[in-house]
Design a protein that fits this description.
20% of the residues lie in helices and 37% in strands. By secondary structure, the chain is an alpha+beta fold. The protein has one domain: Alpha-Beta Plaits (2-Layer Sandwich), CATH 3.30.70.120.
Length: 112
């Protein structure tokens, strides 16, 4: 099993969610996060004073899937989240050793 974490622009969440639902992804965890990469934040003016906003609001999507679905999910997420502009985000893939559904005690694939 694999865990996919994607950091995307907030307005792309619905597009990514719909695309994943179409290929059978049933569950995901969403978090509002802040950060920066090459985008490096931006400057804003508030009441006449200029200040730097270092951390940009983003959305973090986490899903755990069977290993054979990874390439398909990555491709779908990349297409749905892509705007072609800096700050589109990143996708991380990591191994998951075990999953347990608390309510039933099911493990691994059955728990997904």
């Amino acid at each position: 099993m694999k865990k996919i974490e994607a950091i995307i622009k907030p307005f792309k969440l619905d597009d990514v969610k719909e695309a994943l639902t179409e290929i059978g992804i049933q569950g995901m965890t969403i978090s509002e996060v802040k950060g920066y990469g090459r985008q490096k934040g931006h400057k804003e003016i508030y009441r006449g004073a200029e200040y730097v906003v270092d951390f940009i609001p983003k959305i973090k999507i986490e899903i755990v899937i069977e290993a054979e679905m990874v390439e398909k999910v990555i491709k779908i997420m990349q297409q749905a989240a892509n705007t072609g502009k800096i700050g589109d985000g990143k996708i991380f893939v990591s191994n998951v050793e075990q999953v347990l559904r608390i309510r039933t005690g099911e493990t691994d694939s059955d728990a997904l």
